[in-house]
Design brief:
Elements: E1 6-10, H1 12-29, E2 35-41, H2 45-53, E3 59-69, E4 78-83, E5 93-101, H3 105-115, E6 121-129, E7 142-146, E8 152-153, E9 169-172
Parallel strand pairs: 2-3, 2-5, 5-6, 6-7
Antiparallel strand pairs: 1-9, 3-4, 8-9
Helix pairs in contact: 1-2
The structure holds inosinic acid.
Length: 176
Amino acid sequence: MSEIKPELLFPRETIAGRVRELAEQISGDYQGRELLLVGILNGAFIFMADLIRAMSIPCRVDFVRAASYGSGSESSGHIKITKELETPITGRDVLIVEDIIDTGLTLSRLVGVFGERQPASVRVCAFLDKSGRRRVPFTADYVGFTIPDRFVVGYGLDFNENYRFLPDVCILKDIA
Ligand code: IMP
């Protein structure tokens, strides 16, 4: 039986530097406004915690959870919100914070659902982007790193709920 050995992709120092750059860019873009950061559970919690502490504008937070339903490990394309926002977003500037964009299905659905609630704006900040894997066209407004089609863990990202706690982003060698 082969053992899974995570291989270092982005060390914590590289992540911290990029998160500071993103926070600076976002703070500049929303100068004079108040932002609602909406984290997608569970994966975004570490990225969001670091991002918000590096922002220089007032921010509020809320969270949603989205699940893809259907059978098998591949996304069925149907996304259901299993934990709703607790904040009304009408008239607010909303920034959805996601750990990684893969097929694009989750975010295109969430942006659509939130857009119907008449927010002042909805944008997306993704820590990682596997841009080669899209099943629907989707472009995030802010991206930490674009990565190749490999399965990554750490910094909030999991494999079967394992490895989320790793401070670095690693590639799971045996699961490409
Ligand atoms: P999608 O863009 O709708 O396909 O879904 C993105 C979600 O798939 C992310 O929020 C993760 O939960 C999960 N995901 C996709 N690729 C990876 C990966 O490489 N590592 C960990 N989770 C991943």
